[in-house]
């Protein structure tokens, strides 16, 4: 094989690799960034705790009139 043909094949291969890399970078930039597992787990535990606790009891009010 002559060196001109080898150079052309190498440049074609590099061009394909650069195009593939550019597509991958574009796709990666469009995906939302993932949160670490510890953050997801912590937020989930907080939500479950709030759900289990329910609403806070209402504060006791003073009676409007005396019952005697």
Structure description:
The protein has 68 residues and is an all-alpha fold. The chain has one domain (3-52). Helix content is 66%, strand content 0%. It has two helices and no strands. The chain has helices at 3-30, 37-53. The radius of gyration is 32 Å and the shape is rod-shaped. The termini are far apart.
What secondary-structure arrangement, pairings included, does this model have?
Blueprint: H1 3-30, H2 37-53
Describe this protein with a few key phrases.
rod-shaped; about 70 residues; about 0% strand; mainly alpha
What is this entry, summarized?
This protein has 68 residues and is mainly alpha-helical. The chain has 2 helices and no strands. It has helices spanning 3-30, 37-53.
Strand count, sense and barrel status of the largest sheet are: none
Low-confidence stretches: none
* Annotation field: number of helices: 2
Strand content: under 5%
**Number of separate structural domains:** 1
Series of secondary-structure elements, N-terminal to C-terminal = HH
What oligomeric state best describes the polypeptide chains here? single chain
The pLDDT mean sits at 87
The beta-strand count equals: 0
